[in-house]
Amino acid sequence: MTAAESADSFPERDFQSETAATIPVTALTGFLGSGKTTLLNRLLRHPGMNDTAVLINEFGDVGIDHMLVREVKENAVLLNSGCLCCTVREDLVVSLRELLRLRFSVMSDVPAFRRVLIETTGLADPAPIIHTLMTDLVIGRRYRLDGIVTTVDAMHGSGQLDEHMEAVKQAAVADRLVLTKTDLAEPETVAALRRRLRALNPAAPVLTAVLGEIAPEALLDAGLFNPQSKIPEVTRWLNAEAFVPDHRAHGEDRHDHGHTKHGHDVNRHDERIAAFCLTRERPIPWNAFVDWIEMLIATQGANLLRVKGVLNLAGEERPVAVHGVQHVFHPPTVLPSWPDDDRRSRLVFITRDLGRQAVEDTFDAFVGKAA
Length: 371
Fold this sequence. Notes:
Layout: H1 15-20, E1 23-30, H2 36-44, E2 52-56, H3 64-70, E3 76-78, H4 88-104, E4 115-119, H5 127-135, H6 137-142, E5 143-153, H7 157-163, H8 165-172, E6 176-180, H9 187-200, E7 206-208, H10 216-219, E8 225-226, E9 231-232, H11 234-237, E10 273-280, H12 286-300, E11 304-311, E12 320-325, E13 328-329, E14 333-334, E15 345-352, H13 356-370
Parallel strand pairs: 1-4, 1-5, 2-3, 2-4, 5-6, 6-7
Antiparallel strand pairs: 8-9, 10-15, 11-12, 11-15, 12-13, 12-14
Helix pairs in contact: 7-8, 12-13
């Protein structure tokens, strides 16, 4: 976004039709051994997934996971070895572009797939996938991010969250969290992990896959726009109420100052992660919002793990959706209508080493004064 953009320019494009014409992309992530491949195999056995193209990224030289998926889907494509957060990002662009070429080529036997699933390595940061879909001009016109699905091992998930920042980021930015191996874990362990995940990512549903089985509709169409219904699913995509503090739901006993009686655990990486939602009643001036978000990106971009929201802009009758990851923001999208009578602007933040108060203070300094 640039400050030169204004709300008045939005109606010149039919974002609803453009979005409906794009191919949804779902990123399947999760830490090592959390059951991503098992889940993927089960998903691809559902009849409704027959028109799905699959991209797999794995860390290593032997494509074991790729062979497992190839037994189910012949049009799976294996990315070069490496991690999506570094050199493989270029391979992701090449692979997505090649899939498009094959899809529209009369000489190709690749079917006209309607969806793409990307399985990342267990060490991957999902942010580069979102960056790629937002910044590559060819890909951005043909694909859209539908959602990030993160698998979490019920037996070892808490330990992985303690020890690996990658696991924390994967869970924090997810649109759907899927617990695996719950049949092997103690009920108390599973319940504690659920509470921890809800605190880390309040708006993401915490689902359960038994032996990898879960209905595709529970994971897919998780984005802001569902082309099948042509209705903006704001209430599902942006569940602001989930961010209202409820310490009893997290099983915490707190003192007056908001700290747990046990204090902070320095070994827990998710102590550095914050999830909160800013809401504002009054319409927001677009140029002031752009100035604020550009300042925030310039000074704290690396710590903005994910930002998504719906704005009530001054001079615009319809809601405007915004979506960003770290230093990259997607162009604003005008939605056809508000889903209900709630006209508040709502911005959900998932941040690292950046608290709510700092974000809110800068927002009020830039946008509040202008409003």
